[in-house]
Design a protein that fits this description.
The protein has 475 residues and is of the alpha+beta class. The chain contains twelve helices and 17 strands. The radius of gyration is 26 Å and the shape is globular.
Length: 475
C-alpha cells in the first residue's frame, strides 16, 4: 500500500474515533454484565487528571482519661463511640452489646476454658495479618496463647505458625479448590478426609514480628467426624511426650491433649476413616483467635454446611465471638440495584444461619474496604461500593450483629488511592500490604479496647446510676 493511502486510512480512523467520542454516553454503555467506556475528546487531548487524595491520619493509641467527674468521663466515651476512627456500629446503639463476650473472656482462666474468636474473611485476612492484632489484644488482656485453630493443611502460609502434613488426605471445601460434599465441611468451611494414615506437624513461627505468646502450644484439640468408629490419634513432641486417644464412637468428637509445659513443636499421627475439621493449637486458658481466610469467597458458605454439623462444631469449639469479614469479592460484579439486593439477601441468610447454629456467640460483621477501578482513565472507588456498605451495615444491625467499617477507617471515597501511594495497599488497588493490614488490625483492636474499658467503667457503678449519668451526659 502506498504511503499516502496509509496516511488517509489513519486520518479516517482518527476522525471515526473522534466522532465516537462525541456521541458515546459519558456514563458508559452497559451490555449484559459488561460496562463499556470511551474517552472524551478532552480526555484524549489533555489526559485524565487523577484526583489528589490525602491519607487519613492514623490513631496511634486510644487516649482515655478517667476524669473526676463521672458524667464528663461518660461523655468522653460517647464521643469516642461515635467519632473515634473505626468505632463500632451497635444494634440499637446498645453499649452493652459486647458485655456477654467480655464476661466470658474474664472468666475463662478461672473456669479453665478457652473462648474462641473465629475470624472468617476473604483474602484480605490471609497470613493472619489482621487477626494477629486482635489475638495480641485479647490474649494480653484475658490470657491464653498459641496461634489458634488451623486446618490440617494450610495452603496459604501464615505468620502465626509453620505447619505441614502428609498422608491419605483429601480436601473437601465449600469454596475455591477441592471436591464438594453434601454439607460436610465443618466450621472452617472445609475439611480433610482421612482414608488411612496421616501425620500433621506444627512448629512455632520464626517470624520476628509474631507475638511470643503465639509461639508455643500446650492445650491442643483435634476436631473430627469419625465415620466408622476406628479413628485414633497420637500426639508427640520433641521432649519425648507421647499420648494416644481413641474412643471408638462415630460422629463429631474431639481429641484433647493438655501438656505439662508448653512445646514449640508437636506432631499428631492419625489413623482411620474420618473428616478432620481443624486442629486447635492453644497455650493455657483464656482466649484463642482463629484466622480463617476463604480465598475468593463472598461469605456465602455457611448455608452450605449442614445445620447439625455446624451447630455441634461451634459447641465443641466453645465459640464466643464470630467475625464475618466479606464483601470485597462481590464489589466488581455489583453494578445495579438487583445485583446489590441479591448479594445482601445472601449475606443476611449467612448471618442468620451463623446465629442459629451458635446462639451464644457475639457476631461482628466487617464490610469491604475501599476498592478502586479505572473509570474515565483514572482510578476511583467502585460506583456501587458506598451503597453496598450502607446496605451491609443495615443488614448486620437488624440481625443483632455489630458492624465495623474498614471503608470509613481508610478515609472513605477514593481513599484506596492514598493507601496505594503510601505503601499501605498493593498496585491492584484492592489488597492491603502487610503495613496496611497491620494498620487496620491495630485500629480494630483499639476499638475493642475502648469497648472493654467502657465495660469495666460501667461495672464499677450501679446500673441505675450509669443509665442516669449516661442519658444526662448525652445532652
Amino acid at each position: 500500500m502506498k504511503p499516502y493511502k496509509i496516511l488517509i486510512f489513519i486520518l479516517l480512523v482518527i476522525c471515526a474515533l473522534g466522532l465516537i467520542s462525541l456521541f458515546f454516553p459519558k456514563d458508559g454503555l452497559r451490555i449484559g454484565d459488561k460496562e463499556l467506556h470511551f474517552p472524551s475528546m478532552e480526555e484524549v487531548l489533555v489526559g485524565p487528571e487523577q484526583p489528589e487524595v490525602e491519607l487519613k491520619p492514623e490513631i496511634d493509641s486510644v487516649e482515655l482519661k478517667h476524669l473526676n467527674d463521672l458524667k464528663d468521663t461518660l461523655r468522653q466515651y460517647q464521643v469516642m463511640l461515635t467519632e473515634q476512627t473505626g468505632h463500632f456500629y451497635l444494634p440499637n446503639d446498645d453499649v452493652s452489646f459486647f458485655d456477654r463476650l467480655f464476661a466470658k473472656m474474664e472468666q475463662a482462666r478461672r473456669n479453665k476454658e478457652v473462648i474462641r474468636v473465629l475470624h472468617y474473611g476473604d483474602s484480605q485476612i490471609e497470613m493472619d495479618r489482621i487477626s494477629c492484632n486482635l489475638r495480641s489484644f485479647f490474649q494480653s488482656t484475658f490470657g491464653g496463647g498459641g496461634p489458634g485453630m488451623v486446618p490440617v493443611i494450610q495452603t496459604i502460609p501464615s505468620f502465626a505458625v509453620s505447619q505441614y502434613a502428609s498422608g491419605a488426605l483429601t480436601l473437601y471445601a465449600s469454596y475455591g479448590e477441592g471436591a464438594r460434599t453434601r454439607g460436610n465441611y465443618g466450621l472452617m468451611c472445609k475439611c480433610y478426609r482421612l482414608g488411612g494414615g496421616a501425620t500433621f506437624t506444627a512448629n512455632a513461627s520464626r517470624h520476628k514480628d509474631t507475638d511470643p505468646r503465639v509461639k508455643k502450644f500446650s492445650n491442643i484439640t483435634l476436631l473430627y467426624n469419625d465415620h466408622t468408629g476406628n479413628f485414633s490419634a497420637t500426639l508427640s513432641d520433641r521432649r519425648g511426650y507421647k499420648e494416644s486417644v481413641e474412643n471408638g464412637l462415630t460422629g463429631v468428637h474431639t481429641c484433647h491433649w493438655l501438656l505439662d509445659s508448653a512445646a514449640t513443636s508437636v506432631q499428631i499421627s492419625m489413623q482411620g476413616s474420618a473428616d478432620l475439621y481443624g486442629i486447635m493449637l492453644d497455650d493455657g486458658y483464656g482466649v484463642a483467635v482463629d484466622n480463617i481466610p476463604l480465598r475468593g469467597s463472598s461469605g456465602d458458605q455457611f448455608t452450605l454446611i449442614t445445620d447439625t454439623l455446624l451447630r455441634t462444631s461451634y459447641k465443641q469449639a466453645n465459640v464466643g465471638l464470630i467475625i464475618l469479614q466479606f464483601g470485597g469479592n462481590s464489589v466488581p460484579v455489583i453494578y445495579n440495584e438487583k445485583s446489590l439486593n441479591n448479594y445482601c439477601t445472601s449475606i443476611e441468610r449467612q448471618i442468620r444461619r451463623v446465629r442459629q447454629c451458635c446462639a451464644g456467640a457475639t457476631i461482628l460483621f466487617i464490610g469491604p474496604s475501599d476498592m478502586s477501578t479505572r473509570r474515565g482513565g483514572v482510578m476511583q472507588t467502585y460506583p456501587m461500593l458506598p451503597q453496598l456498605i450502607d446496605s451491609l451495615r443495615t443488614i448486620a444491625l437488624r440481625n443483632n450483629a455489630a458492624y465495623w467499617d474498614i471503608y470509613e477507617v481508610m478515609g472513605g471515597h477514593n481513599s484506596m488511592i492514598a493507601w496505594v501511594n503510601n505503601g499501605l495497599a498493593g498496585p491492584d488497588y484492592i489488597h492491603f500490604t502487610p503495613a496496611g493490614a497491620r494498620r487496620v488490625g491495630k485500629t480494630l483492636a483499639q476499638n475493642f479496647a475502648t469497648m472493654y474499658d467502657l465495660y469495666r467503667t460501667r461495672k464499677s457503678i450501679p446500673k441505675t446510676q450509669f443509665d442516669t449519668l449516661w442519658n444526662a451526659s448525652a445532652h
